[in-house]
């Protein structure tokens, strides 16, 4: 089973949702010809990390972004792992991943479980307590956000029910891009799954972001990797490889949760 995935590694205007909607709309026009099965966006792509102005710029109940992504999904007949947005529910703000299917229906929302203190998230956002599991394009999948990948036990939690694809959406800073690559490759090898990870490029007043969006196979091999420019990273992945790897080294059968400490 082949799946065409496209990652939009984009720059993001700081605190300017209108500009970011326009920019993304423009980037999507490249899909008039390529017809991906799944398109993936980065973290907080509507606002960037403008956390001190969330009361003005966070999306009320996510309505604008959900409508926007739903229209894109219908126009381009594609599934969208819609990165994350700053969502405002009764003036409480979350960093929330949106997944919209080909029919334009919102099928999953996941709010970042691990807030990143180095970028003050815990001062402005509430953390999510639900998992990021969903089925998209017929595949058991999970979606997590940026710092979440530093918590292998959280990723493993998603993998225990035969999940085959891990989507990661991020605004990962350039100075730690080596961590980004190493962590993602490790999550792919230890869970024997595809890792499809979309980062942003560019900078905001506090950080420079590192790009290097990446598609990794269940054996840990890099299938495609972007550099530091704005780009759309594309690859066709063969989902059957997950079962092949899991049959070769059956780590899910060999686990010893009876002796592990959580
Ligand atoms: O863990 C890191 O080094 C980066 C995490 C991050 O930038 C985020 O969660 O937004």
From TrEMBL:
GO terms for molecular function: hydrolase activity. Residues 3-239 form the CN hydrolase domain. Pfam families: CN_hydrolase (PF00795). This is Carbon-nitrogen family hydrolase. It comes from the Bacteria. It comes from Ornithinibacillus xuwenensis. Keywords: Hydrolase. The lineage of its organism: Bacteria, Bacillati, Bacillota, Bacilli, Bacillales. The keyword Hydrolase applies.
């Amino acid at each position: 089973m082949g799946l065409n995935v496209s990652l939009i590694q984009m720059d993001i205007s700081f605190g300017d949702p209108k500009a970011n909607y326009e920019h993304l709309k423009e980037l999507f026009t490249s899909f008039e010809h390529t017809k991906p099965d799944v398109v993936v966006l980065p973290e907080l792509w509507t606002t960037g990390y403008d956390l001190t102005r969330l009361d003005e710029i966070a999306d009320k109940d996510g309505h604008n972004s959900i409508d926007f992504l739903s229209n894109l999904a219908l126009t381009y007949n594609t599934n969208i792992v819609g990165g994350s947005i700053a969502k405002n529910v009764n003036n409480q703000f979350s960093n929330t991943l949106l997944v919209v299917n080909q029919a334009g229906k919102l099928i999953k929302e996941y709010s970042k479980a691990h807030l990143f203190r180095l970028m003050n998230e815990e001062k402005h956002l509430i953390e999510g307590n639900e998992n990021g599991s969903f089925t998209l394009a017929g595949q058991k999948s999970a979606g997590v956000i940026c710092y979440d990948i530093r918590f292998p036990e959280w990723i493993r939690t998603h993998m225990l029910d035969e999940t085959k694809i891990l989507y990661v959406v991020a605004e990962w800073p350039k100075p730690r891009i080596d961590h980004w690559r190493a962590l993602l490759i490790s999550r792919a090898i230890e869970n024997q799954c595809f890792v499809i990870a979309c980062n942003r490029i560019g900078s905001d007043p506090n950080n420079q972001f590192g790009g290097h969006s990446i598609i990794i196979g269940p054996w840990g091999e890099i299938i495609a990797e972007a550099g530091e420019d704005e780009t759309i990273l594309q690859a066709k992945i063969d989902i059957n490889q997950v079962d092949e790897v899991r049959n070769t080294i059956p780590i899910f059968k060999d686990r010893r949760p009876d002796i592990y400490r959580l």
